[in-house]
Amino acid sequence: PSKQSIPFIIQKIGRGKKGEIEEISRMCIDVFFNEQKEQEENAKTTNNGETKKQTPPWKALQLAYLRNFQEGDILARNAFKKDQLVDLIVAR
Question: Which H helix or E strand runs over 22?
Fold first, then answer.
């Protein structure tokens, strides 16, 4: 079978808008800290349509904290360091 490459776009978004920053923060934390998300997406469903695996409450709290912290860090840099050159680069 031939390998198909998935095309992606590398885009400079400058300082980013609030929605972009939220999305970037969520993706970064999920990629580095939430290996269970991929497992949940690939999990089989039971007869009543529920997935077998769920994120434990303690881990959901940790992930929410990390996402919020990441987002707050980027927003603070944008607000308080206006003279600093910031270029967020996203590969989609």
Answer: helix 18-33
Q: Are 24 and 90 in contact (CB under 8 A)?
A: yes
What are the angstrom distances between the C-alpha of 62 and each of 12, 58, 85, 87?
Answer: 29, 6, 31, 28
Q: What are the residues whose beta carbons fall under 8 Å from the beta carbon of 24, sequence distance 6 or more?
A: 16, 74, 88, 90
Amino acid code (one letter) for 80: F
pLDDT reading at 43 higher than 80:
no
Strands 89-91 and 10-12 come out as antiparallel
What CA–CA distances, in Å, run from 3 to 7, 11, 39, 63, 91? 13, 25, 24, 34, 21
Find the angle CA(39)-CA(42)-CA(47) to the nearest 5 degrees: 115
Reply yes or no on whether the pLDDT at 48 is more than 80: no
